[in-house]
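explain this:

___
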Amino acid sequence: MMAFPFEISATDGKARTGVLKTPRGDIRTPAFMPVGTAGTVKALTVDQVKDTGADIILGNTYHLMLRPTAERVKRLGGLHRFMRWDKPILTDSGGFQVMSLSGISKVTEEAVTFASHIDGSKHVLSPERSMEIQADLLGSDIVMQLDECVAWPAEEKRAREGMELSARWGQRSKTAFGTRDSQVLFGIQQGSTFENLRRESSQRLQDIGFDGYAIGGLAVGEGHTAMCEVLDYAPDLLPADKPRYLMGVGKPIDLVEAVARGVDMFDCVLPTRSGRHGQAWTWDGAINLKNARFAEDDTPLDPTSDCPASRDYSKAYLRHLFKAEEILGQVLLSWHNIAFFQALTAAMREAIAQGRFEAFRRDFAARHNA
């Protein structure tokens, strides 16, 4: 039995909606997880994040282990108490950031050794250490196995090496994690854009047995079309009765197309990163509020939204804040974008439950492309 029951309440084609039940609250799927890299969703308070409808956020193992250190977070009561978030938290394993951010990293069978991007200090991250940091020190609800995310593009030989190492690290992660009543462990499917490798990865992960399964190694530069080609088969290779989590994705159109292919959970820094740079996501695509055409636009981003940032401020005012380099502009747009992503997943949940997801998908794509 999985520690967190996953109940699928409706399906429409491959799209599905349901609830992942955790001791800290239900996660309604499809779910978008705002990214709280260093113990904060950038520019927002936890109450603002909650008010957007977010059921869960993501914490970053790599950043937190370096600063303020996982041991310090533990001494201060764990990540939930430290950041005042009482709902579920998923932590990534730290592997992706080690590969992408650290100045120097060396991967061996045993672990990855790397230099901190902050001060150059040396650190070792093994599957066992990743489990200790995530489960025991940070105290996350959903823990991710340590994996190796191979850079794209990759030749099949290199993709296989990364997939096989990730599978071996998955077994070590599972052994170190053990069995817990109030925390669960997800495995990560790898294999780049090679179907045979992802099929083998999925089988090896299922032989080990995880509480949920992630699709890794996408949104690393391959583009929307190539990603969708992988998603045409990758989710189907994973158990239908467990949550499927597409890591690091993505743009609204990516979410809709991934849900159409059977994905349940997402995370991405895009909403807050866009918000800090003047970009707002809307039902008609992204707009750049620094553009002169908004200088006297007295309309809000979304008059129908429950989010104050979306509903109560004009585009002209938001543009003014960015031109004047006022911090409030970054706060309001980050808030709006997180609220939009939550509204999008809520709309998908409703469309699936009502059996009209395909019409929703077509309409969304038409507005997005227009």
In short: The mean pLDDT is 96. The CA atoms of residues 14 and 261 lie 5 Å apart. The chain has 15 helices and 16 strands. The radius of gyration is 20 Å.
